[in-house]
């Protein structure tokens, strides 16, 4: 079976092409917007402690962020083979998810030279300083 055999199925093409375009647009708009909103000192400041006695509204917001983060990670994975900024979209999704070891994983990704260069360029275009990875 050829990798392009799916092009012979008009229903699959009718679904895949608009989905691919939507993912591309979402990645081009959402990932840079989220990366520009990350505070410059995100990686060098102490993480905020969790609030075990949070209100229902706060818990709903945390759940909504987790759903959005998971969706961005899935979209980012899809963008690895479809048009779009897959790694940046996955990083934005990771930033929204609460899990142990999150900061270490984000730092590892940001220390990748090509990822850091791209994130810095996006932030510069938005008028934001580069993310600091080391305390000054």
Give the class from helix and strand content and strand pairing: mainly alpha
Q: What portion of residues is helical? A: 55-70%
Q: What's the Cα radius of gyration?
A: 18 Å
Spans of 5+ residues with little confidence (pLDDT < 50)?
A: none
Shape: globular
Enumerate how many helices there are, as a single number.
5
Number of extended strands? 0
Mean pLDDT: 81
Estimate the strand proportion. under 5%
* Main beta-sheet strand count, sense and barrel state: none
Number of domains: 1
Order of helices and strands: HHHHH
Compute the separation of the termini in Å.
56 Å
Structural description of this entry:
The model has no long low-confidence stretch (mean pLDDT 81). The N and C termini lie far apart (56 Å). Helix 1 packs across helix 2 and helix 1 packs across helix 3. The protein has one domain. The chain has five helices and no strands. It has 136 residues and is an all-alpha fold. It is globular, with a radius of gyration of 18 Å.
């Amino acid at each position: 079976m050829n990798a392009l055999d799916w092009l012979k199925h008009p229903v699959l093409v009718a679904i895949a092409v608009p989905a691919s375009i939507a993912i591309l647009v979402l990645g081009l708009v959402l990932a840079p917007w989220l990366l520009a909103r990350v505070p410059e000192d995100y990686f060098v400041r102490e993480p905020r402690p969790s609030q075990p006695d949070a209100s229902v509204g706060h818990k709903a917001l945390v759940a909504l962020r987790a759903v959005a983060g998971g969706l961005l990670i899935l979209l980012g994975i899809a963008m690895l083979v479809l048009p779009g900024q897959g790694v940046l979209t996955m990083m934005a999704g990771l930033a929204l998810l609460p899990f142990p070891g999150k900061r270490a994983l984000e730092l590892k990704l940001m220390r990748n030279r090509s990822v850091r260069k791209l994130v810095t360029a996006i932030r510069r275009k938005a008028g934001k300083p580069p993310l600091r990875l080391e305390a000054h």
